[in-house]
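Notes to self after the Tuesday call (sharing in case useful).
The group wants a holo model before anyone commits to mutagenesis around the pocket. I volunteered. Ligand is IPE. Logging inputs and output together so the record is complete.
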Amino acid sequence: MSDFEQKRQAAAEKLGISADKMPKSIAIIMDGNGRWAEQRDEPRFIGHREGAKVVIRIVLDCVKMGIEALSLYSFSMQNWKRPQMEVDFLMQLFTRYLVEIRPTLMENNVQLIHLGRREPLSDELLEELDKSMEMTRANDGMKLGLALNYGSREEIIDAAKKLAADCVEGKLKPDDIDEEKFSKALCTADMIDPELLIRTSAEMRISNFLLWQISYTEFYITDTLWPDFKLEDVEKAIISYANRDRRLGGVNKN
Ligand code: IPE
Ligand code: IPE
Ligand code: MG
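Result:
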């Protein structure tokens, strides 16, 4: 039994579900930092600061439960529309955070993968991002996809351009493009598609996250605001997931 399987079995036992019902891959839309702060009459950045503290705890919880891939939506390409002060604060927070979490990623054998475009992220942030990715490249535990300056439509367009360029150069025939080749051209190429997508703060939308990758993903939407999100919330989501009937287009066997 692999290390992942052993961990999933232990987690499943704790949750009272069968091990084969544990998701291997989870994606989270970490939403509600602003509302968390507003409820406390605090400026929005206080919510972002609290939200950042939750990230590493959830990463470690997922490692412990044998999750093989975790994708976290931390900043969308559409989030650049926010007030400059909020964007600047978030960029500084990400830059600092990327340095801070490095030892924890190493200790827990986590590989960091960037999801999203590099432009127009600052050189300073990209430097820390590259360092963290380089340092964790050989880690063969959980893959952590950090969606930072990410947009799914943009990702799909980039993949289409890459495949078209390969065709023009004669490396690929249009007829040979299939789901596998398309998946490999996305920034999630090395990750398994999410089986469970969690969105905090009750919003019932995708907000341009992993459109290709979630074609058969189970959704779990919780009222909990991201800064209040904790292990018990992940566990509730997993239990809900385990009780779904995933037909994947087929019919029930019973
Ligand atoms: C999520 O929280 C964090 C980012 C999008 C960066 P929000 O900032 O969107 O919080 P709400 O939705 O305004 O409460
Ligand atoms: C989605 O949340 C992006 C992240 C969580 C990083 P938003 O708060 O930006 O989504 P909308 O604007 O409510 O759709
Ligand atoms: Mg939001």
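Two things stood out.
Residues 23-239 form a domain with the Undecaprenyl pyrophosphate synthetase fold (CATH 3.40.1180.10).
The longest strand covers residues 69-76.
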